[in-house]
Amino acid sequence: MSVKIRIEFNGASMTATLYDNPSARDFASMLPLDLTIDDYSTNEKIAYLPRKLTEEGSGPFDNERPGDLAYYAPWGNLAFFYADYRYSRGLIRLGRIDGDIAPLRMRGKFDLHIELLP
Is 40 in a helix, a strand, or coil? Predict the structure, then answer.
């Protein structure tokens, strides 16, 4: 599976590539989505999904790095990491941002649009 998505907020546009796992496929099935993206901590932005994703096949992972797109199952939110982070229980990696992640560093709460790319 090589599914690409577009992520748009505050005049910025980024693409990401989703991984081939049950949670990422479930997320892709929900698109397009209009959500709100907001700051959380000092290393990520988050957006709450309208429903929880499947957790089938999830488990610990390593080589965490900025640009990861993940799902935090306990809260039902997407996590867009723009700085270093560490795996925590309930975190499922969905994919990676392609290219520059600078737009994620813009502080504030914004309307967010996510869609599948053809």
Answer: strand
Q: Which amino acid is it at 41? A: S
The pLDDT value given to residue 1: 59
Preceding omega of 32 cis (within 30 degrees of 0):
yes
Q: What is the DSSP string of 50-107?
A: SSPPP-TT--------TTEEEEETTTTEEEEE-S-----TTEEEEEEEES--GGGGS-
Of 55-59, 76-80, 89-93, minimum mean pLDDT range? 55-59
Architecture in CATH of 3-116: Beta Barrel (2.40)
Helical residues (DSSP H) of the chain, grouped into ranges: 22-30
pLDDT of residue 39: 97
Counting every residue, how long is the chain? 118
From CA 83, how far away is CA 99, in angstroms rounded? Answer: 14
Q: Locate the domains of the chain by residue range.
A: 3-116
